[in-house]
Amino acid sequence: FRNAINPHTTSFTEFPEWFDRRREDQLDTGKESPSENSSALSPSSETTSPATPEIPCDSSQSKEQAKFSRVAMFCTGGVRCEKASAYCVANLPKGVPVYHLEGGILAYLKQVPKEDSLWDGECYVFDQRIAVSHGLKPSEQYSSSCHACRHPLSQADVASKHYVHGVACPYCCDDPDKQQKRPRYEARQKQIELSNERHTVHIHDPKEYRPQKEMVKEKNNLESLHT
């Protein structure tokens, strides 16, 4: 969303630590993180949509409350925000409004017309569509995802010299953790290719190889007709 704050976390379990750090920076007005300012939890042009007015200061607010504006969050389907918003309510000064987007980005893209939307780009999803845009239309930019790091891949990414099908892509080819696991990815990809040659389904992740699964099902149906 426009003007949203990106915590740059790689796992949802990192959110509490990030949030606590930003909260403490905001409470201690004389202190700021060297890599992040305290605007994520306070009113500013970075966190407030141009179409959204600032909340006037309430004289009845405590000093702690006055240091925070509304907190609004979103995630793909809304599940993680249920947990994150509960954490925020429990760890912010009492009375600070905390909201999350009901149904997540997917519900927003489905319900809000593109011309009225504040969402830019596409939303990554955890299925064969890779990403979706307004109206939940499948991505036109991304055609697949990396089996190692799950990063969405465009045709240009697939054409990169760093792309190895099922093993690595330009986004994880230099990742030490992925390099350590590379033999495992190569072995898995080899098993997938052998399964394809045998017209069987690889057990690792059937959802990724749905066309092959359907082909096996069709083959079995044909065989049953001739028995």
What Rg, in angstroms, do the CA atoms define? 23 Å
The tally of structural domains comes to: 2
In total, the number of strands is 6
Helix content: 25-40%
Order of helices and strands: HHEHEHEEEEHHH
User: How would you describe the shape?
Assistant: elongated
Derived from helix and strand composition plus strand pairing, the structural class reads mainly alpha
Average the pLDDT over all residues and give the rounded result. 77
Task: Report the uncertain regions.
Answer: 30-59, 206-210
Beta-strand percentage range: 5-15%
How many distinct helices?
7
**How would you write the strand order of the largest sheet?**
1-2
Q: Biggest β-sheet, characterized?
A: 2 strands, parallel
Organism: Entomoneis paludosa
Region (Disordered): 1-60, 193-227
Biased composition (Low complexity): 35-54
InterPro entries: Rhodanese-like_dom, Rhodanese-like_dom_sf, TrhO
